[in-house]
Amino acid sequence: MDKMNFGLVGVGVMGQNLALNIERNGTSMGVYDRVPEKVSGFIQNKAKGKKIVGSFDVAAFMQQLEQPRRIILLVNAGKPVDDVIVHLKPYLDRGDIIIDGGNSYFLDTERRAGELEKDGIFFIGSGISGGEEGALKGPAIMPGGAKDAYERVAPVFTRIAAHVGSEACCAYMGPRGAGHYVKMVHNGIEYAVMQLICEAYHILKAALHLSPLEISAIFGQWNEREESRSYLFEITSKVLSKIDDQTKIPLVDLILDTAEQKGTGKWTSQNAFDLGVPIPTINTAVEMRMLSSFKEQRTMAARILKGPAKPEGNNAPVSIDDVRDALHASIIISYAQGMAFLRAASQEFKYDLNLEVVARIWRGGCIIRSKMLEPIRDAFRTAPEIQNLMVDQFFARRLNELQEPLRRTVRTASMTG
Ligand code: 6PG
């Protein structure tokens, strides 16, 4: 039997979709999971008729891959990654490449790369963004590690990545943990933008008394505007339009207002503190996630602690356009914080990040993809050394235009409680 071009370990939904994407783009796949039912389920269903072969034991899996092997891991961050490496290790040969496609902590990636390199095995830590759908249709890919090892996976990665025009949303980020570092900061920005969207929603609801369906339409309109089109606005509009089948109530009103977190946002804040870089919008978003989970305490406190005696919403009017502009300004600020932090981290860890390239590959496939990344990319192209996006000519002009509505919105939010 022909050897398979590429291996994948971790046949969850992300792993399945990534395997289908790689195969669809002309690369045969060998797949393996420690849970045999996952492999058989995949092979008998979604992988049927495709150049995807499943294995139920690690020796067979490793044998069926062409050498030097290229194996991507799609398992949960943390111990599972170490466990898989221990499991594969006896069968690995010099020159083989392991790619970790999960949300691993960058220092774990650096440790793993160091350990494997002693035996001549390459380790690429790669951020992959876009969720399950992105994995299937085209994610943004942020690989880091040994450059020559990356060159050997680049043809596959650039084919499976999202494309904006003819440009693939995949590029080499830098050595060691650079890829996972960039993905971590991507997620920090993701947390910030999601929190800002929630706050804009809440102001429209509580101060302007709009319904979820009306707010859905508003986000839909905002998403039509060239400068603010983004995936997160698009799905916000969709989510808010959803009516629960059973109760006929907007689904958003039935969802508990508590959110969990897997760790990438928290790591962003922790590392920014370590480096002494201010990223207050991202930090606040992480803290609001934590606060949301204290549901019982919040409910109890709301019975004791009073809001404003006379909500002054009507004396401090805010319009829908004000909220739109406040949100836009705040999103500019969030990207600016993330990028300034990446610049500092690049110096600290000698990652030699190219922020224009980071902005370029975030334009498609990933969760924070948005039209705003075009002028962000332009800013770093014209002034690669710019310290903060807020003082770039284009963004400074926009922020100066938007500051009045931003202040009005913040004032109304405060005065209406
Ligand atoms: C992505 C996402 C994805 C997920 C994060 C954050 O880029 O596809 O960032 O990785 O949203 O893991 O998850 P939490 O919000 O649960 O921390």
Question: What level of helicity do the residues show?
Answer: 40-55%
Supply Rg.
23 Å
Residue-averaged pLDDT: 96
Quote the beta fraction: 5-15%
Task: Please give the alpha-carbon distance between the first and last residues.
Answer: 68 Å
Strand tally, please? 9
Strand order of the largest sheet: 3-2-1-4-5-6-7
| Small molecules in complex | 6-phosphogluconic acid
The main β sheet shows up as: 7 strands, mixed
Instruction: Give the CA-based shape.
Output: globular
Order of helices and strands: EHEHEHEHEHEHEHEEHHHHHHHHHH
User: SS-based structural class?
Assistant: alpha/beta
Task: Report the uncertain regions.
Answer: none
How many helical stretches?
Answer: 17
3D architecture notes:
- The protein has 417 residues and is α/β, with parallel strands linked by helices.
- Helix content is 55%, strand content 9%.
- It has 17 helices and nine strands.
- It has helices at 13-24, 36-44, 58-63, 79-88, 106-117, 131-137, 147-160, 178-206, 212-224, 231-241, 264-275, 280-293, 295-304, 320-349, 355-361, 373-382, 393-415, and strands at 6-9, 29-32, 52-55, 70-73, 97-100, 122-129, 140-145, 163-164, 167-168.
- Strands 3-2-1-4-5-6-7 form a seven-stranded mixed sheet, sandwiched between helices. It has a two-stranded antiparallel sheet with strand order 8-9.
- The radius of gyration is 23 Å and the shape is globular.
- It starts with 5 loop residues before the first strand and ends with a helix.
- The protein binds 6-phosphogluconic acid (6PG).
- Residues 103, 129-131, 187, 190, 261-262, 264-265, 366-367 line the site of 6-phosphogluconic acid.
